[in-house]
């Protein structure tokens, strides 16, 4: 065997592909296979391509780029797989191997470097982004821009996403965000809160409500300083070294808090934090610290349930509600019961589970931006099931899912009768917390 083939097998995690028996249990749960109908866009098809690279049957690894790029990374295939194939690890390694070999154009290379190294990891840049969004919305510029029609000419359908951007908080309100809040009544846990990058920039209100709900449920809450981006967008884009660097920064920051739990409110971020142990498993200096971090990582719904749920919720008078599950909460963190328990404990609501509830909505980080048409095909299928519930409120637990469902509501002309909300927003509303 040539050294180059040995290197390929190591890079693409060839040995892990041998667990796949090509049974096809993954096909019905794969959104891209369902909408595209191609074997190369199914989990077993993508694994087979990686396997052929490891066996030397595929010489030009660039043929893997499209099938892997078009994978959502939802990892529903892992939940369905009877043989325990580590699809996420294989996908992660293959994307990183392709990125190492890919020659990006100068503008793309600069954009990737700027976003991955200068913007997402910088709390200052994310705050500036949030403040700029607030100024854009409140100054009247947004109305002028929207009426001009220029948004329809933006690339990547960015005008569609601009229209559903959440109301930003003011710089003054952002500065008032507490860094520590004491438990209301008896203290049950001390928790360290993970703010995230996109959550902090665009969904700061949800972060603030998360802190208040945790305190209401009986937690001392610490908003840890010097934390940074979780690294999920980096890992999904093949930038594994930068993802590991960010993981180490977060481990250092949160170790100082000495909290019972590290709490997040975003399914995608939570999955990445949960997998720090996997990410740094081969690093002798960091493996144990990363595993300890992951052991403490919790979605906010888990901690609220551990505290006994939310008290004193106001009745909702028969409101029909459905729930769009976060793929990474369901398939990576395995958090399924807690969000539903919190939701169904709101008095007076009529909860209606949608068909194919575990199917991805098509957001998947920035997938809906870089692969808009494919994402919309998946979203259209999701909206068929959403509409069939007759729900007036769609609950999500991830910012990407929240924006995607808002976009789906808009595409179906349902904005006047259906709303999408994060679970934390809904619980705060029911608890009378603003």
TrEMBL record:
Q: Which reaction does it catalyse?
A: glycolate + A = glyoxylate + AH2; (R)-lactate + A = pyruvate + AH2
As recorded in UniProt, its EC number(s) are: 1.1.99.14
The coenzyme or cofactor needed here is: [4Fe-4S] cluster
Q: From which organism does this entry originate?
A: Aneurinibacillus migulanus
Q: Which InterPro entries match?
A: 4Fe4S_Fe-S-bd, 4Fe4S_Fe_S_CS, Cys_rich_dom, Glc_ox_4Fe-4S, Helical_ferredxn
* Keyword Iron-sulfur applies: yes
Q: What does this protein do?
A: Component of a complex that catalyzes the oxidation of glycolate to glyoxylate.
Q: What is this protein called?
A: Glycolate oxidase iron-sulfur subunit
| PANTHER family reported for this sequence | GLYCOLATE OXIDASE IRON-SULFUR SUBUNIT
Presence of the UniProt keyword Repeat in the record: yes
Q: Molecular function (GO) terms listed?
A: 4 iron, 4 sulfur cluster binding; glycolate dehydrogenase activity; metal ion binding
Q: Which UniProt keywords apply?
A: 4Fe-4S, Electron transport, Iron, Iron-sulfur, Metal-binding, Repeat, Transport
This entry's comment on the bound cofactor is:
Binds 2 [4Fe-4S] clusters.
